[in-house]
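Technical note accompanying the year-one report. For the benefit of new consortium partners, we illustrate the data format agreed upon in the data management plan: each record pairs a sequence with a structure-token string. No post-processing was applied to the example shown here.
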Amino acid sequence: MSADTPRNTVTEKEYDAFQAAYDWFNRELFEGRLPGCLITYQSRRGARGYYWHDRFHARRGKRTTAEIAMNPEHFTGRSDRDILSTLVHEMVHLWQARFGKPSRARYHNRQWAAKMKAVGLMPSHTGKKGGKETGDRMTHYILADGPFAQSCRRLLATDFRLNWQARPTTPLPNRNKVVYVCPSCGAKVWGHSRHAQRLLCIPCRKVLAMVG
């Protein structure tokens, strides 16, 4: 890289922020016992984040590392505290994989639920009080003034901030459909393109034209 080539500070700052948060919560909630892992941004439908044990292996040598993925599609409308609670949720999975006894893939067992509560996150399949504490699809809510809430409060007091989130995506149009438009009033309807359709705009008594 030449001296006048700009650095990609967006990548550096955002990933450094998550690494700093990981190190902070590792010290404060896990006694610094968790090993390093690869933190990534991944969009997975329906998931705020996920943990994947030994997801990566070294290109040289036999080392492996886990992945904690954060879904930026779910950052919008959530506070930094809420997003960081997802990070800690996945850190509990890493703790269990390293020091506990995970159940079959995707299942959140009682050991995992107990550790969640110990760090200040209440497991709940609904994300609200009264939800099931174990199961395949689980989320959580933050326990008021619990260890996570207190630790996160101290972290945010250091001017820690997350800065980026995914833009809403526009669904791709159905290529099997086209738009029909009234040449008089401009009214539009969708129709199938597999065969010509004779559609009539009743107020204008005009046949709609296919435009795409």
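Partners are asked to follow this layout when depositing records. Helices lie at 9-29, 80-99, 110-119, 147-156.
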